[in-house]
Amino acid sequence: MKIAPTAKALFAGVALLTGACAHPLAAQPSGPANAEVAEHKPRNIIFILIDDLRFDGMGFLQPQLQTPAIDRLARGGTYMPNTLVTSSLCSPSRATILTGMTARNHGIVDNNDSSEEGLTFFPAYLQEAGYSTAFIGKWHMGSATDAPRAGFDKWVSFKGQGEYYPNPDAPPGRETNFNVDGVEVPQRGYITDELTDYAMNWLESERDPDQPFMLYLSHKAVHSDPLPPPRYAGQYDNVTFDLPASSANTPENYEGKPMWVYNQRNTWHGLDFFYNSDMSMQEYLRYYYSTLSAVDDSVARILAYLEANDLEDDTLVVFTADNGYLIGDHGLIDKRNAYQPSVQVPMVVYAPGAVPAGAVNTGRIRNLDFAPTFLSLAGVDLPPQFEGQNAWPLMSGAVPADEWQPDDFIYEYYWEWTFPMTPGTFAIVRDNLKYIQYYGIYDTEELYNLADDPEEMHNLIDDPNYLEAKVAMRQALFDQLADDDGRHVIPYTRRYSRGSVRRMEGGTRAADFPNSWYVEPNRIDRLDDIFPDSPAKLEAHTRGKALAEFPVLGTGSNTVESASQALEE
Length: 569
What we know:
- This protein is of the alpha/beta class.
- It has 16 helices and 18 strands.
- Helix 7 packs parallel to helix 10.
């Protein structure tokens, strides 16, 4: 790890590495920390997980953002810009964090209801080692229930995505309730604030003060559709955010890209029709980042508690996200694909005296590595099913980034019928090369040199200079996608070449989408297409009605004002 002599120098290389706008920190960085400092006794762990936060969505990287508490974490800790998720989708990513296993082995491959049978969540091992543990926030993983899971002494959660504001008029099955230790409790306030209240109450009065503790605080924010609390409404109304150059619909931007990327542009997950609305990305980001401000308040409360109770030197705080987020990169929004803004997540590690302060650590770490790191830090032997690495030597500076030897980064995304515009995607990153292939579609592979082309604009898949690398990475990807029993659980065959993809010049062009898929923006039934087909849905559509009304962000009941008014009533 390189420790820069000044904060300005510290962040000089971040923009090149991440595509972010570098912003100098106010504090001077400290020298390298001694990793042994962390081993004097079991270290408390506070794991703060944000939903869908873009890799550069923090004030020290974007000066127009107001995130003073998160920035304080970075000043007092280490920013790790090369943090990646092995599946960029809520449930698979969360399952990987909790189990220390990849999607092909834990079996949670999409956001639909699935079994958690046979899975052990890493806090259970901490419990056995004498830790007090709490899960507070969004679970949304595996079985579609908010019931308490094994491994947690304290449990506060809710079904599915949850709601930013309580809705006392919600129809049956969509009530805005929390499950608090097995008891249904109505949501009473703005969700980020209320989850933080639960977390603070557990820290201050419910946990055993004689035990080390592990708090897993999992926010709903800033998942779509992001609604800020009233105190931050309009916070960024006068801010113009920079959008990626690849968002423009130009032949140059799509040269070498698979057909599915262009075809996705006018869909739920495309820039031209994202979330089936005509909202601009500029307007969306104003909601998105003002919603993040409540998370920053939450971080401030936690840091104040640690400081007031002399716990800073005994506690590791990790701030990260379950997925990245595209804001028009390649004409896409949201996540799921293997492009960098989808798989790259924000990551700040804070542990005074054990983790270097004000540092940038470029060593690669995956969400797969979180559980092994936490257990190793607690002195707990790693169970055999864990697939990741203990990254504490990297985080603590005991192993410099340029000497860190990470495993290959393997990415897997399994096609999901609910949002079918992103194909099954498999990718590998080795050194600075990324190879991507797709499952079940008639399209091209991709190969990028991330050192020379961090924006992934120049597909090298047919470049003869990369033939050997392409062949080797195809082989390595196929080998490493096998599960623990050596199986490839999705039927696909090993790939040797681009396949028979040629088309006759002057012949039939790509097919158009069905006429029924083209609709006007801002429809109240914009989510109906992902709900199961049923007589009730057919009857509603026959009458020209929505099965479930879902107004566009900023209209109807989906506004800060209307939600706040409902809360007051």
